[in-house]
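Checklist before submission:
- one chain only
- standard amino acids only
- sequence pasted in full

Submission:
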Amino acid sequence: MYLAVNSKIRSKGYGGKLLATCNNYLEQNFDINTILIEVDSVNEQTATDMEIRVKRQEFYKRHGARKIGGFNYQLPLVGADYYPVMELQFISHQSFTELSKSDLEIWLKAMYKGIYREAPDHPYITSMLKNAPEVLRVQN
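Returned file contents:
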C-alpha cells in the first residue's frame, strides 16, 4: 500500500486519518498488527527534497512510527540509475524496545516477496543484514 495525499489538501489531518483507518482495518480483518514503512532518509546529504523528507519523517513520528536502527534499508531497485537512501520504520499495536535480527529478516523477506515480487533470498536482504547487530534498537 502506498500512502499519499494531494498537496492541495495536506496538513488537514487526512493522511493521519487514512493511516489510522488502514492500520485498524488490517488489524481487525487480517490480524496484522504491524505496518512497515519505507521512508526517504533525512541522512542523504545530496538530497534536493530535504524539506519534504523531514515532513514525512515528522508525519510518521506523530502517528507512532518508530525507526529501526542499526542497519541500512535498501529498496529492491535492480538496474536503477539512482538508489535513494531509505529508512525502514514501523507502526505496531505491539510494544517494541528492540527487534531481533531474525525478526527483521522475516519482515524483509515478507516485504520483498509480497510487495516487490522478489525472491525471499534476494541478495539485498543478505547485504542489509550482513553487518546488522543481532539485536537492533528501536527508536522513537
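Reviewer check: Strands lie at 34-40, 66-68, 86-92, 98-100, 135-139.
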